[in-house]
Design goal:
Low-confidence stretches: none
CATH class of the domain at 4-228: Alpha Beta
Strand content: 5-15%
CATH architecture of the domain at 4-228: Alpha-Beta Barrel
Strand order of the largest sheet: 1-2-3-5-8-9-10-12
Oligomer: single chain
Number of strands: 12
Structural class: alpha/beta
Order of helices and strands: EHEHEEHEHHEEEHEHEHHHHHEHEH
CATH superfamily of the domain at 4-228: Luciferase-like domain
Radius of gyration: 21 Å
Length: 352
């Protein structure tokens, strides 16, 4: 799996378009390798256009854009234009969302998500191949059919190639799809190191083997919760906030398999029951220190960098550390500088 030598450190970027230019410049100046947007209550693509305009080095990705709320042609066009404008720095991160949102919020069809995602990515690549090579568009699959592309609707050639495509996955079937057709896998924040090692890694490798690819062909991107603080009060507040967030994720049936792996299926059932009653504060009290430390890096500030590297090495290639709210940029910078120092040392030793 991944190694510290190629560990990229990423950060989220705000959805408020007015805040994007200054924040993107700041993230690049702070030495981050990439920034990501999510599709929650705003469009995930628009902020990246502004981020591309106001940066020159930072990689820019969607984590995630909801694939099934769109069709491959629309996504291919968005990806082509953003990658062209960003001069090759755009990463198209795609995810499925869950059935209720696809059908009831987006009014789009839902079926066989793993097969549909595999075909969605293949269709996007087929469209890009037509634009790159001038070959006739002829894609016909189980869910998508693209067979018309005239010169008027073909974008101008551009020298930056096509975006990398990352696929978001939790379960083994979608993880295998990422290994088959993706340039990367986006793991969910509600993931433990054991789950990465025992479930994600084998499923990803199975997909890579099926496609005749190697682990070096993909990047595994994963957010990591960080419980720490510059003061005892901040540490305690960080732990409380993360317990509450983890309790929310743990109440969701889609993520039960992570708890099941650790023998905590009963915890999911109780969290789910309480969530239906709206007992959000009570839910957080059910997560003891063992659960918190399994899902998050929990460390005093001087030890965070070492703990973060230990969580990532051998599993994660791109990490998005979730530092506590209110933690100073100076403290964050010190942690990340130490992580980068460890990465540089490994690379120097390899070169030597």
């Amino acid at each position: 799996m991944g190694n510290v030598a190629r560990l990229s450190i990423d950060r989220g970027i705000p959805s408020d378009l007015n805040a994007v230019p200054a924040r993107a410049r700041e993230i690049e100046q702070q030495g981050y390798d990439g920034c990501w947007t999510g599709e929650i209550n705003h469009d995930p693509f628009l902020p990246l256009l502004l981020a591309a305009e106001h940066t020159s080095r930072l990689q820019l990705g969607t984590s995630i854009a909801v694939a099934f709320a769109r069709n491959p042609m629309l996504v291919a066009q968005l990806g082509w234009d953003l990658n062209s404008y960003a001069q090759g720095r755009f990463i198209l991160g795609l995810g499925t969302q869950v059935q209720a949102h696809i059908e009831k919020r987006f009014s789009m069809p839902w079926s066989h998500p793993d097969r549909r995602m595999r075909e969605f990515v293949a269709a996007v690549h087929a469209i890009w191949d037509t634009w790159c090579n001038g070959e006739r568009l002829s894609f016909e699959g189980e869910f998508y059919r693209h067979q018309l592309m005239t010169p008027m609707f073909t974008p101008e050639p551009q020298p930056h190639g096509v975006p990398k495509v990352f696929v978001s996955a939790v379960g083994d079937l979608m993880t295998r799809v990422a290994g088959e057709v993706g340039d990367g896998l986006i793991a969910h924040a509600f993931t433990t190191r054991r789950y990465l090692d025992e479930v994600t890694a084998p499923a990803l490798q199975a997909g890579l083997d099926a496609a005749g690819r190697s682990r070096a062909d993909v990047e595994l991107s994963c957010p990591v919760f960080v419980v720490t603080g510059e003061t005892e009060e901040q540490f305690a507040a960080s732990a409380a906030a993360h317990r509450k967030q983890l309790a929310f994720y743990g109440s969701t049936p889609a993520y039960r398999k992570v708890l099941d792996l650790h023998g905590w299926g009963g915890l999911h059932e109780e969290l789910h029951r309480l969530s239906r009653l709206g007992e959000w504060d009570t839910m957080a009290t059910l997560l003891d220190d063992e659960v918190l430390e399994t899902f998050a890096v929990v460390a005093e500030l001087p030890d965070v960098a070492e703990a973060l590297v230990r969580r990532c090495v051998g599993a994660i290639d791109r990490v998005l550390p979730g530092f506590p709210a209110g933690m100073s940029e100076a403290a964050i910078a010190a942690v990340l500088d130490e992580v980068r120092s460890r990465r540089a040392t490994v690379n120097a030793n390899a070169d030597g």
